[in-house]
Amino acid sequence: MSEQNTYESDSSFLARWAENKLSKEELSEFQKTEAYKDFQRINEVAQQFEAPTLDLEAALTKTKLKTHPKTKVISLKKYWYAAAASVVILLGTISFLNSSISYTVPNGGTALAVSLPDGSKVQLNAGSKLSHKRFFWKNNRALNLDGEAYFEVEKGNKFSVETSYGTVSVLGTKFNVKARKNNFDLKCFEGAVRFDQKNTNNYKILYQNDRISITNSTTIKEEKSTENLPNWLQQLSIYEAQALQIVLDDLAIQYAIKIENKSTDLSRLFSGSFIHNNLETALKTTLTPMGISYTLSEDKKTVYLP
Fold it and tell me: Whose CB among 31, 104, 105, 305 lies 3.0–4.6 Å from 264's, allowing a Cys bridge?
């Protein structure tokens, strides 16, 4: 079977190939042609595009006969390429319109100030990532957060922050969200916010000075807070009866260090604080009061606990 008398001469050949209806002999011969790889790439792209079912070859043949009834129907190869090219362009446009903008602060990094398209402002803490859609922001003020950030939101349409613990929704207010591996913390500094817990029907409405937290379970703890700003914006982390594991996780993020523990009980509760600009002082104020000895590596990148 030659290349000429397969996909060019047989008007149903390409359609049968795309639907995996070729015989073994036909497929084997087609795979030997120079055009096979091109059509294979085109078909892979086309399979990703969801559209109404359309018999492309029949439609093109019908159109050809209506517009030029006396003209012989020519090869569909160029039409196939044109259709595939249109699909690629359309997919590229959709992908571009759905693209996102991301902001990342690495462990040990300095807080990043982010201005959103509507004038809302965000302060992003170390070890955190924030992202949102590139276009149509005013109609869809939605962000994804992994880490910690302080928000000052301009009034307007619904504003939401998606985290692994659930969604925080506001219309215009000031609040701080912390969503890390072992704990979630939400504080409202002005106005009101709503938290919808993921995979549950639970939700909470927070007003000024309200705070909720989740640690190692789905139970939401409610508290009051009198802070005027998040402590981390003042280079300080403060804890009240928090598991030492959470405290050390935060310390590791702020200083970009690794903490290796052999047998120390990290479930013990810690009340106190550490500063963000001196590692050795931070270690002393967290571990020494707990009666825990430690060793800091020469490069100050690893802390060893007994």
Answer: 305
